[in-house]
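I'll show a record.
***
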Amino acid sequence: MIKLPEGKTFTEHELYFKERTGNDFTFFYKKYYPKLIYYTSKMCGDVQKAQDITTDSFMTAFEKIDKYDKDKSQFSTWLFTIARNILLQDIKVSKKTISLDVEYDEDGSSLKDFIKEDDPVDITLQDVIQKKAQIMMDQIQSLKDPYKSVIEMREIKKMSYRDISLELNRNLSTIKSQIRNGRIILINQTKSRFEKIDSDR
């Protein structure tokens, strides 16, 4: 549900949005929705979550357009910053690990390429995430089969369960079970190191 500033109708807010950005909300929605979906799905590895985060990003941008300053940044930069912050908050809560250098567009651009250096960035949180990501990557490499292969395919290569099943010639239910058990092993092996990183912040 979009919350409009007190006293404004939806149409009035749309006009205000256009005044602040120079274009209709639908223009930006059509242009950047696919890019945000692609970027957030690469970051979190979950298409449904990526869709939710993307929708939340646009709703936030629309609701808080009075916070946007076109003299400081392009709307697209501001929008991606909102998406990044929502993602980082979600990651912080769920304790997931990702790489913030992941490419989000066909030209090989990453989030760091997209966002201007003068935009506010939570460097501390980025550093924590990257440290956890490296620990998780190292721990994956130390796994024994059958867990190592299925976890690499699912978490690093982002392969579907079905493709992994076909690739390894194993039953689909077996693949799902091995991935689930592999994740449990990883969580147990990294828990104390993650907690130490969090306590040192």
